Amino acid sequence: MAGIAYVNGAYLRSSNAQVHIEDRGYQFADGIYEVCLVIDGRYWDAEGHLDRMDRSLKELGIRQPMSRASLRTVMAELLTRNRLKDALVYMQVTRGVAPRNHPFPAAGVTPALVMTARRFNLDDNDARAKKGVKIITQPDIRWARVDIKSISLLPNVLAKQAAVEANAVESWLIKDGKVTEGSSSNAWIVDDTGAIITHPKGREILGGITRETAIACARDLQIRVEERPFTLAEAAQAKEVFITAATVLVMPVIAIDGQKVGDGAPGPIAAQLREAYKERARSA
Ligand code: PDD
Description:
This protein has helices at 24-28, 46-60, 68-82, 122-131, 154-165, 209-220, 232-237, 268-283, and strands spanning 4-7, 10-13, 31-39, 42-43, 87-94, 112-119, 133-139, 170-175, 178-182, 186-190, 196-198, 225-227, 230-231, 240-245, 249-256, 259-260. It is an alpha+beta fold. The chain folds into two domains: 4-120, Aminotransferase class 4, branched-chain amino acid transferase, N-terminal domain (D-amino Acid Aminotransferase, Chain A, domain 1, 2-Layer Sandwich), CATH 3.30.470.10; 125-283, D-amino Acid Aminotransferase, Chain A, domain 2, CATH 3.20.10. The strands form two sheets. Strands 7, 8, 9, 10, 11, 12, 13, 14, 15 and 16 form a ten-stranded mixed sheet that branches. N-(5'-phosphopyridoxyl)-D-alanine (PDD) binds next to helix 6 and strand 14.
């Protein structure tokens, strides 16, 4: 990837940037990450992402790499140096570098922080939302703490690859007959009363920041929100289906496992929520 990356205190050309071979992220996936959307030079839902980053670090006992104010400075500097106004910013913190050994290294190891930015095209994303996307389903074979935004994403990678091979953009993960979430997004349906349903927060899903904002938007729009697990059969009968994430905002789904959702076109509730989400995130 071209551009400038922040790597452990330095701004480097990505092509020259290096991390140590004994970084625990590389050897054990011992780290966490965040993906933040930037539109017109402004981070959307940044506080939510930084709060979740603090939580993930705390859950894994990894030290904060720097204060929030310093993180904000790096986030801003990264955009300036890459001359980006619309971007997806990736932040990763690992426990640091130490000779390979499973237990945490002795206190004093410095967490490693890497940040990259890549261009995001909101118009393309909007165009995709007008058409809607197709998804498939896969078994949820992940560990029992997916509420932590860990960089250990192999099951998610396999599920996403299965989607790509089926000409779809996402896999919904199925556990005990219920849809938990997507491989890199939260999962939603609209029932025949017009209520929206999404899996409750807890250890079985990642508490999406876009999900939180979408719930707030729905409440503003007087759309009823039910936070409960739902089945694939309910999704098959749903009036609308959509996914949320920083990378897709609110994205309508038009087919699941090759079966049309509703009449096979994006529905009004997802469209309304997408617009409301954009408004809210812009003014946050
Ligand atoms: N993923 N669930 C999973 C498993 C995710 O990986 C993501 C985001 C979400 C949505 O979270 P948010 O609304 O905070 O983006 C839910 C990022 C975008 C990624 O891995 O690229």
